[in-house]
Amino acid sequence: MEQKENNEELLRIIGKKIREIRQNKNMKIIDLANKTDLSVSLISQVERGIISPSMDSLIKIATAIEVPISTLFLNEDSYEEESSPLPMRPKDIPSPTTQSNHFILTPVELHDQSPVVRKKERKRLSPAKGINFQLLNPNLNGPIEFIYNEYEPNVSTKFYTHPGSECGLILSGELIVQINDDIYHLNEGDSITFNSTDRHLKKNVSSKKCCCVWANVPPWF
Predict the structure, then answer these.
(1) Domain 2-78 adopts which CATH fold?
(2) Residue numbers in the chain where pLDDT is lower than 70
(3) Does domain 97-217 have CATH number 1.10.3720.10?
(4) According to the model, what pLDDT value does residue 98 have?
(5) Residues 166/194, Cβ–Cβ less than 8 Å
(6) pLDDT at res. 86
C-alpha cells in the first residue's frame, strides 16, 4: 500500500511540474504534442497524474520544454522533506557542462547533508513498470550520479540517449545492454562502460531479478 501511495505521489509531482513549465512557456498541450509526437490525450493524462509515462516519453517531454529530466521529479514544495522522490539540483546550482568535449566538473555540494546515505533513506524513482532506481548520492549537486538499479524479470527500457558517459556493475542476476547494434550479455560480477550519447537500452530477459549499480557523469536525472 505504501509503495502504491509513493508511486501515485510521484506521478502527481511529475504531472504538476510538466503542466507548470508548459504553461510558463505559454505552450498549449497541442503544441507539446506536436513537439513530442505524443498524443494530446496522453500528455493530458500525464499532467493529471493518471498514467505512468515511459522513460522515452519523459525524455521527449523534457526535451520539448527545454529542461533537464531531473526537473520533472523535483517537488519544490517539499524539497527538504523525507517524502520527496529525489533530492535534485536546486535551480541556482549549475549542472556539470561540457566544453570542447571535456567535462567541467562541479565539486560535491552537500548543503549540510550527511555524506552517508543509509539504505532506508535512499530516494526512489521508478522510470517504468518493473524498474526501480535508488539514488546512492545524498543529492545530485556534484559531478557524478550513483544509482542502485533493479530490473524485474522480462522488463526492458526503450532506446534512449543522454549526455556524458556511464558504467555499471551487475551485483546479481543477468542484464542485456544494447549499445547501437552491439549486444552485451552481462552476468553477476560483469561491468560495462560506454558513452551515453550512443543509443542504448537495458533489459532483463531472465526469470530472476537483476540488481546492479550504475554511475553517470554528469548526473542525468
Answers:
(1) 434 Repressor (Amino-terminal Domain) (1.10.260)
(2) 1-7, 70, 73-105, 127
(3) no
(4) 42
(5) yes
(6) 38
